[in-house]
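A further point concerns the way the authors explain their paired sequence and structure data. Each protein is reduced to its one-letter sequence and a matching series of backbone shape codes. An entry of this sort, consisting of the sequence and the corresponding backbone structure tokens, reads as follows:
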Amino acid sequence: MLKLPGKKKPQPGKASTDEQRNTHGVNAKGNLLRSASMFGFAIVLVPLILATAYLALLHAPAQKDALIKSVSDNYAAQQARYIGDSIASLRARVASAVRSPLALQAIAEQSPADIRLVEQAMLDYFPEAVSLRLLPLSDMGTADLAGGFQGLRNHIEVDLVRRVSNNEPAEPEAYQFEGQWLASLTQVTTHPRLPSKRAVVLLTVDADTLEAMLSYPTGMVGEFVLEQRIYSEGADRDVRIASQGNGAKVAASKADIDDTPWRILFVPSPAIVEEASSHVRPPYGILGGLMLCCIVGFLVSMQRSNKALDGELTRIIDGAEHRTPLDVHIPQLVPLAKDLRKLTLRRARMGNTSNIVPAVDTHSAAPTNTAMTSVDGPAEHGLSPNIFRAYDIRGVADSDLDDETVYRIGSAIGTIAGEMGEQTLCIGYDGRASSSRIKGVLEKAILQAGRDVIDIGLVPTPLLYFATSLLEAKSGVMITGSHNPAEYNGMKIVLKGQTIAEGTIEKIRNIAQTGRFSKGTGHVIQRDVVGEYLDEVVSDIAIAVPLKVVVDAGNGATGHIAPALLEELGCEVIPLFCEVDGRFPNRSPDTSNEDNLGALVREVISNDADFGVAYDGDGDRVVVVTGSGQIIRSDTLMMIFARDVVTRNPGADVVYDVKCSRNLAQLITGLGGRPVLWKTGHALMKEKMVETGALLGGEFSGHIFFGERWYGFDDGMYATGRLAEILSSQDQNIDDFIADLPVAVSTPEILVPVPDAEKFALMKKFVESARFVDGKPNDLDGLRVDFQDGWGLLRASNTGPALTARFEASDEAGLEKIQGLFREQLAAVAPDLTIPF
């Protein structure tokens, strides 16, 4: 076989690969616009065709039948009235005849000879009658018919005479006699001067007379039939008495004749049917014109719609690229325009998040053993107990969280996850200098414990929670030092959809200490969930009026997400410290300290913003500053959210921690909700919200949890969106809004430095020995004592080496009194302690 030079054998799939390269994987397949236009054309044209068929085959015949029936009904009714009037006229003539002197004399004398003469004389006045009888009534009031019919033709005439003589209704009746139809009517008359002298007149006509009544005055227009309903032996039947004329083969119309057992049937003549049909003409010309207009209209619209669509797409792309104002003239393209603008805004605001690198660690961290593959057996020197907090792991990165410690903790987490049936864990990390090192070691440990890893990159903590709600992996680890200084770091852990608390933390510590880890080989993939998070929030929150918001990310992990989120919600954003920098050069990541919010307050006031927000290092806390520069404490922020949530959900539970104002509980109760006081700690709060089904929760430290419309985890960015939604629908600014809320004099959270090793023992001693005579103690979390005009709290911090205190009263004097009582009791159990209140 010859091989041509320069020719290569085509490789399978080569053509499609080249096509994908040339078109960037986007190809035109079919023409949906043309298909949609043709479908629309068919939607209009098919009904027109069906309408034409309906008119021709169903509507026109039905309309013709209805018109013929209407004409027939009129003829039948007119003829029935005519015959009824004729019968009434005949009765009137009879009544007039029997009032003649001759008839009255015969009635008075009741002589048979005279009666025969009167009958003959009266008959001359009724040429249409075949017979007329005058029957005197006896003293008993009835005609003497005993012993036979007394000259009457049959029992029908006898029955007519008897009924009328007894003052019973007696309608005329037709019957056959000797082969022909006759009709008789009876009428009773009384002598005007002799009331006891009465007689019955019986008048009989033949079928010719009845047929003459059927003749229509203007000539025969069809067939008229006179029928009589006969009742015999439990069965009713209609019999034809007389008829006149001829009709077409159509249904007959019927009309009853008043005061008779008769009715008229009318069948129109062929001429009338033809004339009625000529008045029914379906609008075929109009329908044909409409079809032609539809065809021309769709051809023109297809041509114009292609041009309009091309023009709109060009304008949308230009508007998105240059971020200029844009009016979209095709409403269906508005979502595309919005999404395209969102993407360009995200690209401009965030750039490529994979390129965000934490600042270089300025501390002398322990050397990283990148070749570490496993750690076996018990820890030689033991793990620092101080890093295992109530619901997370926290410590100084370069001393407490060296590589071996991190590896042991990661292996323990992977081991416990496997025991719970969780194969995959998400891992996220914040922007601290030590986070990437810890993330690398932690990931290796989890993989070598046999678990798989989804790496979601540098994100705030709420996005780790979001990932475990969104993805199939319901477990994860967030590497973050939260609100602590730059040298700190730690881990927040979710297992099987729940943020772990004290019991599981202790189990992690035990396994990490003993080294009894599961073994295996896991796999790692990277997944960007930022876009999905933004889309989810934007689809949930609606801003009625654009707001101006200052966003202080404090160089934390929200810096590349929070401004983009608020911009996509329609707000004007003024970013402050939004560059991710793990050294936190501008302020401390702790937003609970109001000294860290000075720059935000100044920025809000100078820019005349509606409000400002500050996030802690990992974005699960938020603090709000009003347009006037007032810092809103979280229990006041909870009042704003409670008004919104509970008003729309009467009876809803709202969980809040022991550090919150009791005004919050009173407001929730007043709105029809149920306040639930609980322990401080984001993991503990989430557990309580799941237990109670609460729609809202919040801690004084700034953690806000939404169970309504959201997933129930603490998220400072989502809380900001909900606040903007509420304010954008109000006629007042946030300062005016909170002015309507209950007010008390209170302190911020006060830290009393106590070493971690001593704080819980000291707190236990305080709870056992403190006595508040006028107060009601509650040891749910530390000791909270409620007084008539306020309350005080002292508890051991779960996150730092300190006791935390907070006080509230109706006035300054009451506040000082409560602080004094706590100061005295605390000094009694710890005389050497420096008490800063």
Notes: Confidence is low (pLDDT under 50) at residues 1-24, 352-371. The radius of gyration is 51 Å.
